[in-house]
Amino acid sequence: MTDRAFYENLDAIDPLLPLRNEFSLPEDMIYLDGNSLGAMPGAAPAKAQETLTEQWARDLIGSWNKARWITLPQRLGNKIAPLIGANDNEVIVCDSTSLNLYKVLYTAIQMTLQESDTRGKRRKIVSERTNFPTDLYIAQSLCQQFDMTLELVDGDAIEAQLDDELAILLLTHVNYRTGTIHDMASLTRQAHACGALTIWDLCHSAGSIPVALNACDADFAIGCGYKFLNGGPGAPAFVWVHPRHVDRISQPLTGWMGHAAPFAFTPDYQPATGIARYLCGTPAVLAMSVLECGLDIFAKAQGYGGMPEIYKKAQTLTTLFIQLVEKECAGYGLALVSPRTPEHRASQVSLSHPEGAYGMIQALIGRGVVGDYREPGILRFGFTPLYTRYTDVWDAVQCLKAVLERKAWQAPEFARRHAVT
Questions:
Q1: What is the pTM of this model?
Q2: Catalytic residue numbers?
Q3: How many CB atoms lie within 10 A of CB 319?
Q4: How far apart are CA 227 and CA 39, in angstroms?
Q5: What is the DSSP pairing of strand 220-223 with strand 238-241?
Q6: What residues form DSSP beta bridges with 378?
Q7: Three-class DSSP category at 23
Q8: H or E element in which residue 307 lies
Q9: pLDDT digits over 118-143, tens only?
């Protein structure tokens, strides 16, 4: 691993390398931000054009039937299902992560309040202090509505909060700052042992690492489509509910698409059976058509080893990046934030710097290496195995070394904060 030839050899024997051709990537860029916005599938422009000019322009409203727009949420859900350990007809694609979290958290609270033996006793929702903010904001809102308490703790203190006062354990499977993977099976088992429900945010998991919702006996899960699933900016999200729960309670956003018979146009709401009741409004057809291109690449990936091979490569890419940074960039104040052990780390590496992290990321972007910055003082690099090469690891670290050696990050233009970091 001491020269670029080593990484070129790894690319030459990489079984996933042909899948890079499925994406449209700038030749002069090393893209290490797929954990924030995935690269565009090469098929996306033609798919969008087909949806616009053939389905919408030519067939107009007939495309709800002819092009099966009406079943897009279910069809895409079935394509996501094998990536997260779910079965057919258990996942629905709709709305945003925040809206879907509101739906499942509201439902979980209602389920808790309906249990006669725990009514008034279980008032605690536990989450990680560094959970993604939108999850915490939604939880805060619902806690105020239902007089619940939100307890925020460090990751290593979660288990101590699993007691008979716990109503819901709300966690992001992969921490967005550090890339740390929570043990879904163990934490779910412990939460159930004390009578609580679990909600898992899979935004940084789906398409990145193997997920086993049914095998772990999870209760609810939500996730986005624009990170590792490569569905495009603002791509629709998804929601999964364990079959034992799905028909117990109507979710709160009772829009017409979640009705048992939406085209009966009855004035009263009757929820659909199964996961379809978690629909709300009209499907976002254009966005879903592009998301489908990203999901179809995962179907092709089955011929190259599927999720096990994807995660194996992710572990190798991130391990090599850590080792190379610590060798080439020693003495410049960088510290590893992500777990060192590969089995506890997802497809990202986070580094910290006490003063120059933001400027370093901007200087790297100026040189064609795209990562992102997260408070406080974190340089975050995402490694998407479907299109990230081993030579990208070598080249990115050499660029980081040059930025550090020349103190390029101290230039005034790299200190100006952009609206999106």
A1: 0.96
A2: 132, 201, 226-227, 380
A3: 16
A4: 8
A5: antiparallel
A6: 352, 374
A7: strand
A8: helix 306-328
A9: 555 788 999 999 999 999 999 999 99
